[in-house]
Amino acid sequence: MIFAVCEYGAGNVRSVVLALERLGARRTDDVAAADLAVLPGVGSARAAMAGLRERGHDAALRERVAAGRPVLGICLGLQLALEWTEEDGGVDGLGLLPGTAVRLREGRVPRIGWAGVDDRGAFYFAHSYGAVTPAATGWSEGIVAEVRSGSFVGCQFHPEKSGALGARYLERVLEEARSLSLA
Amino acid sequence: MGDPVELGAAYSDAGADELVFLDIAATLDGRRTLVELVRRVAERLAIPFTVGGGVRSVADADELLAAGADKVSVNSAALERPGLVTELAEQLGSQAVVVAIDAEGGRVRSRAGTTETARGAAEWAREVEERGAGEILLTSIDADGTRAGYDLPLTREVAAAVSLPVIASGGAGGAAHVAEALEVAQAALLASILHEDPARLASLRGELLAQGVQVRDV
Fold first, then answer.
1. How far is residue B135's CA from residue B52's CA, in Å, rounded to a whole number?
2. Which of A75, A87, A127, A155 is catalytic?
3. Domains and CATH numbers, chain B
4. Using an 8 Å Cβ cutoff, are A164 and B218 in contact?
5. Residues in A 13-52 with any Cβ partner in B closer than 8 A
6. How do strand B49-52 and strand B19-22 relate by DSSP bridges?
7. CATH number for position A50
8. Is pLDDT above 80 for B212?
9. B146-174 b/e with 16+ CB inside 10 Å = b?
10. Which residues numbered 1-20 in B keep a CB inside 8 Å of some CB on A?
């Protein structure tokens, strides 16, 4: 299994790279050729979108999803895949799936810590914005925790920081990507 | 007390929710050592990793994140130049910026606790929240090392002053203290009581569960 990470210039992508390598996957810089492309979740929306555009990742990701090829969006990566986010004064996203991201209005923000996702157990979250989308497939305390649309899977939590449960989540994502690429 | 890499890995495996490294010596030479240490520890962790100690600029923070930290913690540098908090938040996102506040007698202390400032802890917490901090790591110097419990009045005051998550630190002696702290703060930090016996983490989690505290499965 070969994965690519669509970096956009900020933050720590090492955690997700290490987590995927631990599962036996190997990294490539070729976003188009990879079995799985990962849109990581660090930094903030405006700078991230600019970084993705600069590197041509926006086009590469749209092509992948149009062709039914697997993409995993993590945290901010999920939000950037939507049409628009309220962050940084309002930023257009990639439009890989319908919906928007809005600032969390309840509780302490950023929402940081471990929280249950449906009946799957606890995962680690660190976010100030949440998705509003018809593509939601998982929930945590009333907040969208997972989305799916075509070959795009997005998780609001950080599976690479969610211990053994997170590792199993990534394993399933890799398995799904493998079956899609064999199909 | 042992190899930080092995210790970090052990805590990660034993169910710690997060690992925090604070390099209190934080010299210029020490920075290179810290970055290398962060790189080695990050390889062994599957939980969030916060690193602090001598972070004075966005470049310092970027270096730590590139090495594998998920969040950076700033303390003295933020007191000296509060604009640093905003810069870090803009560059890294608030969720990656922890502001560590050390307080004694309600007053904020700087430079590893050696220098008193005129600021109140709650007031400083409010200011860094405005500036974009994502979390407050609140250490009570009064309670630190006493093992008699966290400083609940201080923690309550700071937690009430902000809408940010607050991590209580200083004073833990046992599960009951941690349970109390989690009623007023969003997280509780433990250090020496675990480092002297890392196996204690597993039994502590069991005791917390028995006391009705939500503890995740590992």
1. 13
2. A75
3. 4-210 (3.20.20.70)
4. yes
5. 14-15, 18-19, 42-44, 47
6. parallel
7. 3.40.50.880
8. yes
9. eeebbbbebbbbbbebbebbbbbbbbbee
10. 12, 15, 17
Render pLDDT for A22-57 as a digit per residue (tens, 0 to 9): 999 999 999 999 999 999 988 889 989 999 999 999
Segment B82-87 shows an average pLDDT of 97
Q: Is A155 in the active site? A: no
Interface confidence (ipTM) of the complex: 0.94
A110 contacts in chain B (CB < 8 Å): 94-95, 134-135, 164-165
Q: How far is CA A23 from CA A16, A40, A160, in A?
A: 11, 17, 11
Put simply, the answer to whether A163 touches B69 (Cβ < 8 Å) is no
- What total of structural domains would you count in chain A? 1
Residue B111 region by backbone torsions, left for phi larger than 0, else alpha for psi between -120 and 50, else beta: left
Question: Do B79 and B100 meet the contact criterion of CB atoms below 8 Å apart?
Answer: no
pLDDT tens track for B126-148: 999 999 999 999 999 999 999 99
| CA gap A114, A125 in Å, rounded | 6
Residue A23 lies in domain: 2-182
Nearest CA in chain B to A10: B92
Question: Sheet of A84-85: strands edge to edge?
Answer: A91-92, A84-85, A100-103, A129-132
> Looking at beta carbons, which residues of chain A come within 8 Å of B69?
12
Single pTM value for the model: 0.95
Instruction: Give the pLDDT mean for B50-55.
Output: 93
- The C-alpha angle A154, A124, A143, rounded to 5 degrees, equals 60
* Cα-based torsion angle of the residue sequence A57, A61, A67, A72 in order, rounded to the nearest 10 degrees: 140
Output the pLDDT for position A88. 92
